[in-house]
Design brief:
The complex is a heterodimer of chains A (536) and B (182). With 536 residues, chain A is mainly β. Chain A is 10% helix and 33% strand. Chain A folds into 4 domains: 200 residues, Collagenase (Catalytic Domain) (3-Layer(aba) Sandwich); 91 residues, Immunoglobulin-like, CATH 2.60.40; 87 residues, Immunoglobulins (Immunoglobulin-like), CATH 2.60.40; 114 residues, Single Sheet (S-adenosyl-L-methionine-dependent methyltransferases). In chain A, the strands form 9 sheets. In chain A, strands 25, 27, 30, 32, 33 and 34 form a 6-stranded mixed sheet that branches. In chain A, strands 2-1-3-5-4 form a 5-stranded mixed sheet, with helices on one face. In chain A, strands 16-23-22-18-19 form a 5-stranded mixed sheet, with no helix packed on it. In chain A, helix 2 crosses helix 3. Classes of the chains: A mainly beta (536), B alpha+beta (182). The interface between A and B is large, with 50 and 54 residues.
């Protein structure tokens, strides 16, 4: 038989065999994209509630300064590094083996975050609830960053032993898998690979990436280049400088990347730039910035590609101790003078300072704002905001921020509303329950007389020289609900108005006129208008 | 034999292309999947909607809701149900891919699928819904062929690892359902 007669059937059979081959012969898959050098940071928001997720409190020289869930996740991401992380120890499941990627890829450990972050903030955290059979996931696309979530319904274990107990899932193993997604890998059907979609046992075996995983990361970032900078040692000197030894450092123009010392931050590594090397590109000595702390050090030489960033090497700055959280130190509050009645939450108070991480309570004039639903917002380590609530007095009051380490106090002043102001709780338009009624506050000067008006119409009523109301439709539907006197202590006239008997959907407008106690002249000075609607 | 090979090729190709593209999910046999879920449908995807939740504790989260119309594999009853999984895009600018989510090809409107779901009180962001169980591992496309309709397996580690006749799958699901009193 001639060869060409064999070719077509052979090709058909060959391609059929390929298409019909068992799926477990399929290799790694890619989700598209890669992490640029600007996206190498990894932080953990440690909101894991399982005791087992944070009970590893044994220091590890290869992962200085961190414990529990953050250390387990750090180990997981380090497994994908180009070279051994330090001496590779830290995982009894693969002694001396952490750092197996062999690609032009290394992550930059940036410690702890103070929140779950956005979907591009490169933060790992727990997610309360259940994924319905899903253990964890990563949100992509990765080119602008990622976010990793671990569902809280599983019993997470932080190791470090390989025997993590029954009915628990290994955080390090699952983190290793998830970070594979973060760096651009999809799932594989190659048995034994970390990137298989479903978990095998408790996931400990996934701590160690397999040949198929390595082929995947190398496909995305390239096989580790011979010219790639490589750190082989680090010494923290007695004068607190750091000497990094290795190979392929540039003569000048190197960057040394450190882990941030504080909790929070932006994720961007703490960098010392334009650093020269000595010894023919084998040694760099720098003074770490005050903002750097224990974690990893990487060196980027004068190039900008994946192959220009070194492996990550443990750096026990500050003796490997992370500065602990501190009590809030308040440096300012704005506005520092606020009116007694805050119409429609228009007065938002901003407290600035440091050590606000973990603020769990904000106390204004002796009353704590609600944590949930949230009546205050903690934004990073330096800012807390809240809508000014009603307080018990005019004059000086205190605002207190409290975290686990202590509290900080700042003073502010409450003054009478001028012009007068009217506020209905949950207002404008306020849907109220008739059985609860309306809570109305009118802010004005002490002892002023308040005429509280209501009408279903927001067409005006005018009595020249006496009253110019925005409601009442030329007095055809204007009702005087009563006269009130402004409390001299609070600067408010508060009234609870029952609504029983009103039908659902009933809506009306409220406005007040003020007659000054000090200068009782007409016409009445009118407040703003508020609306309410009876829900049921 | 030639006919069989030609019929098998597109199915095999579809199975290969439909293999999961991208975290970790629970590893379940079909029996375990039936035990853990509320129902399994042989259905068509009739609607597809992505929604966003801005939660004070959990942050912004995107979810996809699929409306499935078909029949229960357990008792044959006609059923229309919404199932939800994490991830999805509202438009080109707003959304996320989720490493566990089914591929876009798997969840197109008009697709004929087998889906397993279970009610979950909090999928994150205090969203309660029928969760597509194990996300991409809970949905399997079906394809008609000369020998009947086939459910396309996803490979090792999934509840339906291999291509399976829908009738055979139905029988298995009913057997397991009766075993678990569902």
């Amino acid at each position: 038989m001639k060869l060409k007669n064999l070719a077509l059937p052979a090709a058909l059979i060959g391609s059929s065999m390929f298409l019909l081959m068992p799926q477990d012969l399929q290799g790694f898959t890619l989700i598209g994209g890669s992490l640029s050098l600007n996206q190498r940071d990894v932080r953990v928001f440690n909101n894991f509630e399982d005791v087992g997720a944070n009970n590893n409190q044994t220091p590890d020289a290869n992962f200085p300064g961190y414990f529990g869930a953050p250390m387990a996740i750090w180990k997981g991401i380090s497994e994908w590094g180009s070279d051994l992380h330090g001496n590779g120890n830290g995982d009894p499941h693969q002694n001396g083996g952490i750092g197996s990627g062999g690609a032009n890829f290394n992550a930059s450990w940036q410690g702890l975050a103070i929140g779950v972050g956005g979907t591009n903030d490169n933060i790992a955290s727990a997610l309360p609830g259940s994924g319905g059979g899903v253990l964890a996931f990563v949100e992509t696309p990765i080119s602008d960053g990622w976010r990793m979530r671990f569902y809280e319904n599983w019993n997470w274990a932080d190791g470090p032993t390989a025997s993590i107990g029954s009915n628990t899932i290994d955080l390090q193993g699952v983190a290793t898998h998830e970070y594979g997604h973060s760096l651009g890998l999809g799932h594989t059907n190659v048995s034994g690979a970390t990137m298989t979609p479903s978990i095998s046992g408790n996931g400990v075996v996934d701590r160690s990436i397999a040949a198929d995983d390595i082929a995947g990361v190398q496909a995305v970032y390239g096989v580790k280049s011979a010219s790639k900078p490589r750190i082989t040692g680090l010494v923290v000197n007695v004068n607190d400088t750091v000497t990094v030894t290795g190979t392929n450092f540039s003569a000048t123009g190197n960057e040394v990347w450190f882990t941030q010392a504080a909790t929070g931050g932006t994720g961007f590594p703490i960098k010392v730039v334009n650093v020269a090397s000595t010894g023919g590109g084998t040694s760099i000595t720098v003074t770490p910035p005050a903002t750097a702390g224990p974690g990893d050090v990487l060196v980027r030489n004068s190039g900008t590609g994946n192959a220009n960033l070194s492996n990550a090497w443990p750096a026990p700055l500050n003796g490997g101790v992370i500065p602990g959280p501190s009590a809030p130190q308040i440096s300012g509050i704005s506005p520092s003078i606020v009116p007694a009645v805050n119409v429609d939450d228009s007065v938002v108070v901003t407290v600035t300072g440091t050590g606000f991480t973990g603020v769990s309570s904000v106390v204004v004039d002796g009353s704590a704002l609600l944590f949930f639903p949230p009546q205050f917002t903690v934004s990073g380590d330096t800012q807390v905001t809240f809508s000014m609530p009603k307080v018990t007095k005019l004059g000086a009051i205190n605002v207190q921020l409290i975290n686990a380490e202590g509290s900080g106090i700042v003073g502010m002043s409450v003054i009478a509303n001028n012009p007068p102001a009217l506020e209905v709780s949950n207002s404008n338009p306020s849907f109220v329950l008739s059985v609860i009624g309306l809570t109305i506050s009118v802010g004005a000067s002490p002892l002023d007389t308040i005429f509280l008006l209501a009408s279903p119409s927001n067409l005006p009523s005018s009595l020249p020289g006496i009253l110019n109301a925005s409601i009442g439709d030329n007095f055809t539907s204007l009702i005087l609900l009563g006269n009130l006197i402004v409390n001299p202590l609070t600067g408010r006239a508060d009234v609870q108005l029952p609504l029983s008997g009103l039908n659902p959907g009933f809506s009306a407008f409220l406005q007040a006129g003020r007659l000054s106690f000090i200068n009782p002249t007409l016409p009445l000075e009118m407040t703003n208008v508020q609306q309410f609607t009876v829900l049921f | 034999m030639k006919k069989l090979l030609l019929a098998a090729l597109p199915l095999a190709l579809l199975a290969w292309v439909a293999a999961p593209a991208t975290a970790k999910i629970e590893r379940l046999s079909l029996e375990q999947m039936v035990e853990k879920t509320d129902n399994a449908l042989d259905a068509e995807i009739v609607a597809h909607q992505v929604f966003k939740v801005d939660h004070p504790r959990d942050g912004e989260l995107y979810f996809t809701k699929l409306t499935l119309a078909g029949r229960s594999l357990r008792d044959g009853r006609a059923t229309t149900v919404d199932v939800v999984y994490a991830g999805g895009f509202i438009d080109e600018q707003n959304g996320v891919w989720n490493s566990e989510a089914p591929s876009e090809d798997d969840v197109r409107i008009g697709n004929k699928v087998v889906a397993f779901y279970r009610f979950v009180p909090n999928l994150g962001g205090d969203v309660s819904a029928n969760a597509l169980y194990t996300s991409h591992g809970g949905i399997y496309r079906t394809q008609s062929g000369p020998a009947g309709r086939v459910v396309l397996g996803r490979g090792e580690g999934y509840a339906i690892p291999f291509n399976t006749q829908i009738e055979n799958l139905t029988t298995s699901v009913r057997t397991f359902s009766e075993k678990f009193g569902k």
